[in-house]
Amino acid sequence: MASPDAGMEYGRFTERGEFTIFVWKLGFMETSFTGHIVDIAGKRTYPGTIICRDGIIVDIVEFRDSAGLPEGALHYLPGLTDAHVHIESSMMTPVNFAKVAVTHGVVGAVSDPHEIVNVLGREGLDFMVRNARCTRFNVCWGLPSCVPSSHLESAGAEIGAAETAELIRRDDISYLSEMMNYPGVIGRDAEVTGKIAAAKEAGKPVDGHAPGLLGEDLAKYVSAGISTDHECTTLEEARQRIALGMKVIVREGSAARNFGALAKIVSEAPEMTMLCSDDRHPDDLVAGHIDTLVRHGIAMGIPVWDMLKAAAVNPVLHYRTGSGLMQTGDRATFIAVDNLKDFNVRQTVMDGHVVYDAAGGGLVESGLMLQEPHAETPNRFKAGRISEGDIALTLPGTDLPSPESTKVKAIVAYDGELLTGKEEIPVRELQERQAQKIVVYNRYGRKEPQVGYIRGFSLENGAIASSVAHDSHNIVATGSSDAEIVRAINAIVDAKGGIAVSDSSGVDILPLPIAGIMSDRTAGEISARYRELDRRAKQLGCRFRAPFITLSFMALPVIPSLKLTDKGLVDVDAFGFTEVLSRQD
Question: Among residues 133, 165, 79, 115, which one has the least CA distance to residue 348?
Fold first, then answer.
């Protein structure tokens, strides 16, 4: 449609009854949104109109009463922010992530790109920033603090204190991402303290990652200048952090689902809490995002104002995201919901442009996109194919008539948790205890695979494998037999990245050509393929809600208690390597 003449004014009623006025003056577009204005700070709603010009809120007019509101008028409030997420875990590019997020009223993400940076270094960071700039979606980028996460694994890149001091000063970097090396923080390791000092000097906050840390060690960790933690799983952990002045980011991801256990902390300390998804796989992201947490919290009886403060206000203030709080002078970025109980997102507005309209057909791509992204598939993948002999594991004593004295240390995986247990299992009981091999294979060079045992996946007549393996993203696989494990791994090697299922019917794979962890396909395409692989994994006997994302954390040596990396079996509690063989008399 051609633009009206300058100074011409016209209006229209939307399908929801809002009246929108467009005025072209000196090339500026003025829009207005009328409905119930949600004042989170004042804990009230009032009838009014938000007037926007050139992407900025220039006025919010309060009506004397609601008589002038159309029937079914919507509730307008600041947009939601995911306070800690790795966009790469959605397997989508930032552009495609944004296209899904805005449909859930999420206008911004505090994003730590340490997945792709562990693979590609600075090249990966620049790719993410460049791709996100093609949209109006507000990404607050962090600089990964642990590349690699520790000395216990091999990554594709390394960022030390000197490079951190350089990169943290960039205008497109807003904070230092989760400091996972908590032993290094407590012990005042020079590299670790150097990175934290660089962030402080740049005036940027430091995110934490300290699962299970309590008492004196926690106090030392917080005193280093770390301001948040998203790893709490109990109220006691959350309360201790808040008492020390640390903000708690309540997580509900695809594998780690802690909202139910921690929801109470939102009402106990609404000024000190935020909400996040952390790692959310494509099928879960399509189904819901931070909006789902707000609905759950309200249904649990948490005051709506506390939930909205955690979801829409605190991340903006803590990270200085720039998306605004729906006040005069802020960016015209906000959302509309049907009411503050059901909290169904009906509209998302960014910079004065409607980017999602539930009544008008859904995603308004022309409003969200600023330009089309370049077709890029940066990657680093040098691993070669392997054979069954490469993952054979001979345990001393197993050829004896009574191998009761021979035990192995096995990882115990739990549904909905990133934490793992550790057990000592007699070799003769491996099968009956449903302990199976787990393999981690370095994808950056020609190294031998590392082999251990894991219990919990319970796969029958098949295997699953993935090159999404936090944080270094080597290949991780588990299964019922060496043959199936090898087939799944080799499919990923051939594709140079992906997630795969192997069984008697063959191998099925979702290729991930971008750094071996993401696809340039749309959310719908990725989600459909992922759901099919998830279904097949569960047909093999796995009862985990999210088999692949649970598998992806079995190689992360900074979350207790026992993990396997490309360098060997890691006792995270001792922060060192241990032998698979437990004891032999």
Answer: 79
| Pairing assessment for the beta strands 28-39 and 562-565 based on DSSP bridges | unpaired
The pLDDT tens digits of the residues spanning 493-538 come to 999 999 999 999 999 999 999 999 999 999 999 999 999 999 999 9
User: What span, in angstroms and rounded, lies between the C-alpha atoms of 475 and 467?
Assistant: 4
- Determine the Cα–Cα distance for residues 138 and 45; give it in Å rounded to an integer: 26
Q: Say if residues 134 and 375 touch (Cβ distance below 8 Å).
A: no
Residues 129 and 278 in one domain: yes
The Cα–Cα gap between 101 and 104 comes to 5
Domain shared by 410 and 524, yes or no:
yes
**Whole-number Å distance between alpha carbons of 327 and 72:** 23
pTM of the model: 0.90
Proportion of the chain above pLDDT 90, given as a percent:
85
The average pLDDT across 101-121 equals 98
Tokens of 441: 């294979």
Q: Minimal CA–CA distance to 458: which of 565, 378, 541, 394?
A: 541
Q: Do 561 and 421 contact (CB within 8 A), yes or no?
A: yes
Whether residue 268 lies inside any domain: the answer is yes
Residue 444 lies in a domain: yes
DSSP letter for each residue of 352-416: TEEEEEGGGTEE-HHHHBSSPPP--------PPP--GGGG--PPTTTTSS-GGG-EEEEEE--TT
Q: pLDDT grade, residue 19 (50/70/90)?
A: very low
Place 16 in a pLDDT band, splitting at 50, 70 and 90.
Answer: very low
Q: How would you write 43-84 as a 3-class SS string?
A: CEEEEEEEEEECCEEEEEEECCCHHHCCCCCCEEEECEEEEE
- pLDDT at res. 300: 96
**Domain identity same for 288 and 392:** no
How many domains, the chain? 2
Q: Which structural domain, as residue segments, surrounds residue 510?
A: 388-583
Residues 184 and 293 in one domain: yes
* Whole-angstrom distance, CA of residue 58 vs CA of residue 327: 9
**Residue 140, both tokens:** 């607050």
Task: Please check whether residue 364 lies inside any domain of the structure.
Answer: no
Q: Are residues 290 and 433 in the same domain?
A: no
